[in-house]
Amino acid sequence: xxxxxxxxxxxxxxxxxxxxxxxxxxxxxxxxxxxxxxxxxxxxxxxxxxxxxxxxxxxxxxxxxxxxxxxxxxxxxxxxxxxxxxxxxxxxxxxxxxxxxxxxxxxxxxxxxxxxxxxxxxxxxxxxxxxxxxxxxxxxxxxxxxxxxxxxxxxxxxxxxxxxxxxxxxxxxxxxxxxxxxxxxxxxxxxxxxxxxxxxxxxxxxxxxxxxxxxxxxxxxxxxxxxxxxxxxxxxxxxxxxxxxxxxxxxxxxxxxxxxxxxxxxxxxxxxxxxxxxxxxxxxxxxxxxxxxxxxxxxxxxxxxxxxxxxxxxxxxxxxxxxxxxxxxxxxxxxxxxxxxxxxxx
Length: 346
What we know:
The chain is built from seven helices and 14 strands. By secondary structure, the chain is an alpha+beta fold. It has a single domain (47-342), classed as Deoxyribonuclease I, Chain A. It has a six-stranded mixed beta sheet. Helix 4 (202-218) links the parallel strand 7 (183-191) and strand 8 (223-229).
């Protein structure tokens, strides 16, 4: 007969110890797995993420007889600014004239590359007396070009309008680069139909943007970066900005988030109150840097700025104590974006 002092359910202390040991083991395995995941993610992030600093500028390179001011002075200043190598990519528009293109090319620093006039223009481009049949586009890059291509718009403005849009051959210049092994980037620079003196030219601009979005969609690069003068403000009653936003991400809008921070006079790229040439006009946002990634890759904006670039101009009838005054690089303000590119290992 069993002892009356023997527990009916047996001794449970060994069971509790076993459960505690299992819980501790599971916890340690979880901590080890989490630590391994963090270390792996950290390694993959820094191995597969690179930074790219981009500047876009409308150079206002029309001949003086067509309306620009201080062109030669400003082109020298733009070239000397590029010499500082502050950015990896410079997307230039309205570089209409061949001598101005050459001025900047001569100042491109060692180790950088610049597209030729003919890379982004038709063979009929003049660029010596007038900008007829030229695109005015150029790219300066820290990285050598793998491919270069000019994509001409099918719509060029009306031959009856006095704005000269019909005689220009606007489009998009595409240059492919590889800033890091395995990171294929298509850089595009463009300049769309300008607003006329008493008309918007929205019809032509909308068709140009549709073509542009189509070219972006056709890119098989890992990343696409597009910049330039689009001559359309987000508040305009046309489809251009909306169509671009459906296809790509605006760096300015992505970085500032709050619309009051970017859709305001101090961020205007034309008619900015700080611009020495266009301050008297209504402030508008015409210049943008857009980006997108393909497949599993990712790209995002780390920083965005409107830097207000200026140079010194000597005064013939000096009203200043030192005989100089500051002038803007262009009647447009430059925009800059610092981008991070993450290449998927899949």
